[in-house]
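Quick log. Single chain, no ligands specified.
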Amino acid sequence: MTSKAGSRAAFSRISFFDFNAMTGRYEYFSIDTRAPQMMNERSVEPAEPDGTLELYGAVFVAPQWGAATNVPFRYRLIIGPIHGNTQIVELYLTPIPAAQSRGFLAFKYLYTRRTTSSAR
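-> predicted structure:
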């Protein structure tokens, strides 16, 4: 993945996104080179009419967040509908304790479908 100009360096991510027919939930799993952790999120409700999905992850502890250290967060993903060959995924973090907060937008990813061609 490449970063927006002027921000952090590029990183690599492997991810899987599927619908689990047994549980009736969407599931997303990823791991990337920014941190040695696997992230796993699941939907609770069906997709919105426009195709937007909200998936919930677990709690993780950020070793450093601004001036604070060992900050616990709960996280969730908002997976937008596919438009052409692109899709926006937003990662929201909610500090613990949350105190009525739905969290804040921490990262916004633009996924672009690539086409591959093979010479035959």
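The chain has a mean pLDDT of 82.
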